[in-house]
Specification:
It is a single chain. This protein has one domain (6-112, 144-304): Aldolase class I (TIM Barrel, Alpha-Beta Barrel), CATH 3.20.20. It has an eight-stranded parallel β-barrel with strand order 1-2-5-6-7-8-9-10, surrounded by eight helices. Strands 3-4 form a two-stranded antiparallel ribbon. A two-stranded antiparallel ribbon has the order 11-12. The protein is an alpha/beta fold and 307 residues long. Strand 5, helix 4 (91-101) and strand 6 form a beta-alpha-beta unit. The longest helix has 15 residues, at 207-221. The radius of gyration is 18 Å and the shape is globular. The protein has helices at 27-40, 61-64, 68-74, 91-101, 132-137, 148-158, 172-183, 207-221, 236-245, 269-282, 290-297; strands at residues 6-9, 44-47, 49-50, 57-58, 78-81, 105-109, 164-169, 191-197, 225-231, 249-252, 259-261, 264-265. It comes from Sphingobium nicotianae. Keywords: Metal-binding, Transferase, Zinc.
Length: 307
């Protein structure tokens, strides 16, 4: 069995600051928590940015550049910049930071989804910032838009610079979208397939979903892919554990779940990395270093990014 790549998604764009005092918001917090996650064993750091004043999602390159160079200098981890952005962001905005940096890896959502966190809105009164409740309530009527034209635009914009993609697949149909772009030569192996399970409004994290994702990817891609997965919220550790047993790499982080165990908030991203690492160790699985992850994924190397 291949070594397991641990990815860590440190902050994301869906959770809001009131939900956890440990969610990193400022560039310094994002940098410190990402560096600690890398030291704990994360080979890939999946990164979003937030407004330093009130923690709302932002795509501004100047905010990314307040923490990316620090992470790059302090770790050997693969920097993976999100192109998903956040609700309401234009495609142009979603791509700005990645275009500026030309990173080794970027996320690439392989289809449109309906993230549905709006039932959480009444749970957190009072909110720290006035934008949070309307933001959550607004998810009842938004889509995370990723048309085939959007996907092609991201590939054709970033691919020529050697950036490869973490292809986020929220549904079985998204795997077929990967296959369609691969058949046309726009995506080339090895494919990093990230199964995203348990997000409200998308595919469940039921064990049958994990199995279905794996068997479908096997049929479509054979040996030409590296499989990774994560479970959102309470599904995080069980889904990662099941996937690892079946041969997957794993992703954890406060973007995906704010908790370390039932009812207990995680105090950092590194705490989640250390927990999944303990589970992987108990399963007798070997953890990939950043250098090994680069080799497995065919990445261009940390010296070939604009940092």
């Amino acid at each position: 069995m291949a070594k397991v790549i641990i990815s860590c998604a440190s902050t994301g764009s869906m959770h809001t600051p009131t939900m956890s005092p440990f969610l990193p918001i400022t560039p310094q917090e994002i940098a410190e928590q990402s560096i600690a996650a890398a030291k704990a064993g994360a080979a890939i750091l999946h990164l979003h940015a937030r407004d330093p004043i009130d923690g709302r999602p932002t795509a501004l390159p100047e905010v990314f550049m307040q923490f990316l160079p620090q992470i790059h200098a302090a770790t050997d981890a693969v920097i993976n910049i999100s192109t998903g952005g956040g609700p309401g962001m234009s495609m142009e905005d979603r791509l700005k930071a990645a275009v500026a940096v030309s990173p080794e890896l970027c996320s690439l959502n392989m289809g449109t989804v309906n993230p549905a966190l709006y039932p959480l809105a009444p749970r957190y009164e009072p909110y720290r910032f006035e934008w949070e409740r309307p933001f959550l309530e607004g998810m009842e009527d938004i889509i995370s838009k990723n048309t085939h034209r959007d996907i092609r635009n991201i590939i054709e914009t970033l691919g020529p610079g050697g950036t490869r993609f973490e292809m986020e697949c929220y549904e079985i149909g998204h795997l077929y979208n990967v296959a369609s772009f691969a058949d046309r030569g726009l995506l080339k192996p090895p494919f990093l397939i990230q199964s995203v399970l348990g997000v409200p409004g998308a595919m469940s994290a039921h064990p049958e979903s994990v199995y279905y994702m794996r068997t479908t990817a096997d049929r479509l891609f054979g040996k030409d892919y590296v499989w990774s997965l994560f479970g959102a919220g309470r599904h995080q550790m069980p889904t990662c554990t099941m996937g690892a047993i079946m041969g997957s790499s794993v992703r954890v982080g406060l973007e995906d779940s704010l908790f370390i165990s039932k009812g207990q908030l995680a105090n950092s991203n590194a705490e989640q990395v250390l927990k999944i690492r303990r589970i992987l160790d108990e399963l007798g699985l070997d953890i990939a270093t950043p250098a090994e992850a680069r080799e497995m994924l065919g990445l261009k190397g940390r010296d070939n990014v604009n940092l």
